[in-house]
Amino acid sequence: MKNPHLLFVALLAVSTFVWPNETHAQSSDTASVSPAPNAFKKCPPVRPSRHETYRLPSGGSLPEGISFATDWNKAPTGGWYAQQAMDSCRIQPDGFLTWHGKTAVRVEVQPKDDPLTLNSNSERAEMLIMQDDIGKEIRENIHSGTQYYATSYYFPATWQGQQLPWSAFAPTDCSADRNMCNSWSFVWQFYGWGALSAAKSTVNGPQHYSFNNTQLADGGLIQLDKWTDFVFVVEWGTGAYAIWRRDEGQTTFTQALSGTMPVPDRNIYVKQGLYRGGNVGDRTDVLWIGPTARGSSFSAVERQAFGTDAGRSNNVSSIRR
């Protein structure tokens, strides 16, 4: 059977709730010099073995309203609690900056990158489990209230993520070995509840964002060679969520998706990086991720992750059912 780590992504949003249509934001950062991104394979091959590390150092003190924030300049692993990657080269800052002038982290996944030694035709380089400033793990459940999460992604023009049905691999008989045709490309997981993918869903189709197999607004097209900012808002008590998006050069966040999914009776944690099905030939995937934050308001995480301020935090959390 397919890896059970992926079973939850078959859930679809079954009802919706509405958030304000737009949130205005103006960058507060000055222009910064950033080297051109290197999307070629540059990490050395690593012999197959388990590469999983826990109890990593936190990023230190946090501003008011922020319960987690990455800082790759201060902590060698960004402040995450754990890492699943073949080596430190697979997830590291390389000098490339976000369009807000923030430090970005480069993620590289090569064929056979299986740091958990699952041997199930899946590959990854991921950070996981947010933690507070004293190193306490952050796991979400129905008692977590409303939480806000901000992050950003940059996919180069060479990005070829794929999340294809079995029919795409004909004449291969995928049913003979259910792992043979594994095809997915997740860059953010609320592990056990939902996931954001960045991939094409048809053989010659465009690259787009989907959350739990539902495309974001306007087809969710990925702006290659440009940054995209995201804010996720989740009411963990009800399972209601909204995803807000802002592409490089824009000054407003626009709601890209909203819905409700039941929250399971277990703890959920965040994973970020790249987790992909292994049916990719000899392809190496590279992407960049900007600062990531969790907090109690839209404006708090926006300021922390992007250095911009919408000034609408008091209204963003109001829900009309």
Explain the overall architecture.
The protein has 321 residues and is mainly β. 4% of the residues lie in helices and 30% in strands. The protein has helices at 298-306, 313-316; strands at residues 22-24, 52-53, 66-69, 82-84, 91-92, 105-109, 122-128, 146-154, 185-191, 194-199, 208-211, 214-215, 227-235, 240-247, 252-260, 269-277, 285-289, 293-295. The strands form 2 sheets. Strands 1, 3, 5, 6, 8, 13, 14, 15, 17 and 18 form a 10-stranded antiparallel beta sheet that branches. Strands 2-4-7-16-9-10-11-12 form an 8-stranded antiparallel beta sheet, with no helix packed on it. The longest helix is centred in the C-terminal third of the chain and has 9 residues, at 298-306. The radius of gyration is 19 Å and the shape is globular. The termini are far apart.
Largest sheet at a glance?
Answer: 10 strands, antiparallel
Strand content: 25-35%
Q: What does the average pLDDT come to? A: 89
Uncertain parts: 1-24, 26-31, 311-321
Number of helices: 2
Tell me, briefly, the overall form.
globular
Terminal CA distance reads 39 Å
Q: Care to count the β-strands? A: 18
Order of helices and strands: EEEEEEEEEEEEEEEEEEHH
Multimeric state of these chains? single chain
Helix/strand-derived category reads mainly beta
Radius of gyration: 19 Å
DSSP helix fraction: under 10%
